[in-house]
Amino acid sequence: MAESAGAGGRQTAALVGAAAVAGVAAAVGWVARDLPAEFGGRAEGKRLGRMLRSPQFHDGAFRNPVPASLVEASDAPGMVLQMLRDQETRRPAAPVPLVAEPVVPASPDGVSAVWYGHATTLVEIEGCRVLFDPVWSERVSPSQLVGPRRLHPVPVPLSGLPQVDAVAISHDHYDHLDRATVLALTAEQTAPFLVPLGIGAHLERWGVPDDRIIELDWEERATVGDLTFTATAARHFSGRTLHRRNDTLWGSWVVAGPSRKVFYAGDSGYFDGYARIGAEHGPFDLTLMPIGAYSPSWPDIHMNPEEAVTAHLDLGGGLLLPVHWATFNLAFHRWSEPVERLLTAAKTNEVRLALPRPGDRVDTTGVKTDDRWWELGG
Fold first, then answer.
1. Cα(218)–Cα(229) distance, rounded to whole angstroms?
2. What is the pLDDT of residues 251-298, one digit of tens each?
3. Most CB atoms closer than 10 Å: which of 34, 227, 309, 313?
4. In this predicted structure, what is the pLDDT of residue 191?
């Protein structure tokens, strides 16, 4: 019996050892294969030539229209430690209420929108569908093992999306440009990807066909069906690693149908460019403005809720749909603080808000204002 038990123990140990070796091998394989792919590609040839000719490109990097201070890579360890503190106040206290099947139908000749969480939004403009910054992954990180994790599920699976006419990307950070989602959209959809300069190299490395990649500099335009897309300025930065920054352009988007217009800000600090965009391209039926992940540590690259309201007014916006909050823990403020501050600023400035539950649809002509759903979420 003792000999038999010893043999069983050696067999178990061998199996455990083999599993450990297999796990290490799998991890090494992932680091060697998938991690570099997540970092994306580098522009070459014609793509690089267009970058070098861009008025936004100076001394080997893209620059902001108004200089912006950035968080240095050396500050990252301290910020990670700070993020580990007070986590309970920066997440919902109960499950976030989601909507899988909106009651409000898409407007065939107006503007409606479905916010899926964070920046991911499906906007329907006079019968055409535009998907902004789609992210369906569990984490916004080069690894699905570490990094900021969802605070609520995506309301619908990616396969449940209707066919879209265009996918618009604002910049290449992981919470806005998600490789797994791009791969799925490439396989399941036929829509082109509209991206700022340089991001086409990422898409190309990930297998997106060249005829589905439309790269634009600021104030360049492209027509997709009945929609006209204009890439416009933002005050932010780019990069998918800590040591490579600003080698792709960031931006915002003006999307115009035959008679309706939408503005999507992407990620940006407040700057006087919003008034210029409003004067040249506005007014807008709908603006999608970021209100979360702000901090005194990075005041130039993420606007706070009050600044979002000011930018909306600069743009000549009609209805304001807040994005970039509630889904990922990317800053030190309380989970519901952005929307609470937004409500106060909007009331003071008489700005119309849409505050849908993730997955719900809102129409610019009629919006519920009495559903404080985030209070249910904590």
1. 11
2. 999 999 999 999 999 999 999 999 999 999 999 999 999 999 999 999
3. 309
4. 98
Q: Which helix (H) or strand (E) holds 49?
A: helix 45-53
For the chain, the residue count is 378
Alpha-carbon distances of 360 from 101, 283, 286, 373, rounded to whole Å: 7, 25, 16, 12
Structure confidence by residue, pLDDT tens digits, 6-16: 444 444 444 44
The string of DSSP letters for 244-283 reads --SSS---EEEEE-SS-EEEE--S----THHHHHHHHH--
Dihedral angle, C-alpha 347, 353, 356, 361, nearest 10 °: 160
Inter-CA distances, 33 with 28, 29, 38, 39, 319, Å = 9, 6, 9, 11, 44
Please give the DSSP secondary-structure letter assigned to residue 159: G
Q: Which residue has the higher pLDDT, 23 or 96?
A: 96
Span 56-69, pLDDT tens digits: 999 999 999 999 98
| Residue-wise pLDDT tens digits, 309-356 | 999 999 999 999 999 999 999 999 999 999 999 999 999 999 999 999
Q: On the CB side of 171, how many CA atoms lie within 13 Å of its CA? A: 27
Mean pLDDT of 64-81: 72
Question: What does pTM read for this prediction?
Answer: 0.90
Short-list 371, 367, 331, CA closest to 352:
367
- Cβ contacts of 104 within 8 Å, gap of 6 or more: 112, 360, 361, 362, 363
Please give, one letter per residue, the 3-state secondary structure of 71-137: CCHHHHHHHHHHHCCCHHHHCCCCCCCCCCCCCCCCCCCCEEEEEEECCEEEEEECCEEEEECCCCC
30: phi then psi, degrees, rounded to nearest 5: -65, -45
Given a contact cutoff of 8 angstroms between Cβ atoms, the answer to whether 364 and 348 are in contact is no
Element (H, E) at 373: helix 373-376
